[in-house]
Amino acid sequence: xxxxxxxxxxxxxxxxxxxxxxxxxxxxxxxxxxxxxxxxxxxxxxxxxxxxxxxxxxxxxxxxxxxxxxxxxxxxxxxxxxxxxxxxxxxxxxxxxxxxxxxxxxxxxxxxxxxxxxxxxxxxxxxxxxxxxxxxxxxx
Amino acid sequence: xxxxxxxxxxxxxxxxxxxxxxxxxxxxxxxxxxxxxxxxxxxxxxxxxxxxxxxxxxxxxxxxxxxxxxxxxxxxxxxxxxxxxxxxxxxxxxxxxxxxxxxxxxxxxxxxxxxxxxxxxxx
Lengths: 140, 123
What we know:
- Chain A is α+β, with helices and mostly antiparallel strands.
- Chain A is 36% helix and 28% strand.
- With 123 residues, chain B is an alpha/beta fold.
- In chain B, 33% of the residues lie in helices and 24% in strands.
- In chain B, the strands form two sheets. In chain B, strands 1-6-5-4-2-7 form a six-stranded mixed beta sheet, sandwiched between helices. In chain B, strands 3-8 form a two-stranded antiparallel ribbon.
- Chain B is globular.
């Protein structure tokens, strides 16, 4: 069931993390374990930062059912040119602005994958779709 | 070690404090980095007893601590937060301090006094 849709503006570092913070609070409200909440928060925050740094803006959709806590990150262009390279720790196309914010070290996507239970990434020059799933099994 | 003692060792002073009793709580671990991606890439073993020590004085340092369930940040080299980020820290119930020491010196003192690393890499 779709719970909430967030609009994200590109390059807006003043709001960076606010969506992840809200999703983290929702996860807490669903009684998930502290460890799962932390994984949700970290993965979501990295993905939100990636959208701010690399995309032209987009949407983040949160949906929850009895077993899964799902978050979809849908952005508009320019897409990831080489997903295989982007998944390699240390590889990054982020600029100095992102680095000054403490990001852009090429750790984002590998860290997102590490923290999520399901990870699906699709990208073309029109945009990128990242789907993350987190099991709620500890609350069932 | 009580946070109060830790702050005393590195001459740290408050920027914004949400919990007035935080200085009496035991803290044993330090996560030390300017690279927030690096902090997020590691597992924090005990966030309630952990301090984030960083030279990054912006909203992303606050957000990173929030995502890791850490509620104490110490900024190095007398760095402070702007008004907007103090408001953000307050909304997060974050406790932020600043030390005049460079990161290397602050970490060296805390390490010598028995503080442990808060994080471990996960492959």
